[in-house]
Amino acid sequence: MSNYDLLVIGAGSGGVAASRRAALHGANVAIVEMGRVGGTCVNRGCIPKKLFAYASHYSEDFRDAVGFGWDEAKPAFRWSKLVAAKDREIQRINQVYEGLLDQGQVTLLRARARLLDAHTVEIDGERISAEHILLATGARPFVPDIAGSDLGFTSNEAFDLRSLPNRVLVVGSGYIAIEFASIFRGLGAAVTVVHRSEAVLRGFDEDVRAFVTDELRKKDVSFRAGGRVLRLGRKGDTVLATTDNGEVLAAEGVLFAMGRTPNTEDLGLGDAGVTLDARGAVAIDADSRTSVPNIYAIGDLTQRRNLTPVAIAEGRAVADLLFGAGGRRLDYAMVPTAVFSAPAVGAVGLTEAEARAQGHEVDIYKSSFRPLRHTVSGSDERALVKLVVDAKSDRVLGAHMVGADAPEIIQSLAVALTAGATKAQFDATVALHPSAAEEFVLLRTKVKPAA
After folding, report:
1. Catalytic residue set
2. Terminus of the chain with fewer CB atoms < 10 Å: N or C?
3. Are residues 33 and 114 in the same domain?
4. Are 290 and 270 in contact (CB under 8 A)?
């Protein structure tokens, strides 16, 4: 029986970060992974999604270039070349991750793990004991229990389709749904989004939600709000989706993007005494400790903030708590996030609705404008910037943007908001001209509250 100070189950970004940090503190660490190292982010999420988002923007770039004096180009897109390029990059990152584990003196066990009790894990028939166990098995796309669900696909399969569908039906309205709607539309497919809610991107600021929808409509993305897909059927190469209002929508590809389900099955959590919450996620405290004192859980498995940098920060915090000079608790209030749609979204801090719900008296500053590039390109795409400010303290509670480079801009603003920047400090900052980012320091007029 092997003995470890820390055994990590799941070699995604969070698990790898935790294991390396623990080993750096001198702990004897092993990490168990039955698939490719890197988890969802590297293999089926952030990385391939961003590469595909880059690819999808070229169609607009070719069109915009004409306004700047370039001759009109009619390039041909080849799906197979994009998939192959993506595969090469993921393989490279897989090797980087494995190298980091090896250099960090973390033992990588290629197998499936199952808890037998609070300190014992079975791996390929062998029992391994550990003083501490960290669960980092992530989550998977939710697939609805409807007739013909096997005719659809999820984000796990989207990057490896044999060909680009001519028509895509996206079922869902979260950031994954909107990102893929943008990607498939940019690559040339006709796209329809079906969602039960009245607006897309639940959890984002209301102005952002409406603005993104309007911009995607300009790009001929169709929306069916308040609808639910009841079943899928096939007619030749076409998939037919029947909705609860009786509409039948035809497409060559149906993408389910309806949220994610924590990977808790067949882990032996019950045998070890680990409790799940009402959502099926692993229940944890502020230090990521489960109901079993020596077992911890991080990342999508806990359904706190399903973002790769959050899982990394949570994993490092656990390692520091167990083997370092003392852990720090992650502040979730100022976690920046992005939607790599077309146009992109960036946000940090509170939405207007959240700020009001928390009892803040707020001042709202926002501006919608046509970026300089599109005054010449001919595109009618617009951008939106918005600040949510506490009226009493003048502290900026939230920053929101829709437009090109929004994620890059919001990352920098996250530093300011984390440091407690005030609106007066934004106003005192000299603008960088001409840029879209300068709009954040030029906002002067408060938005009058709705009557």
Report:
1. 433
2. C
3. yes
4. no
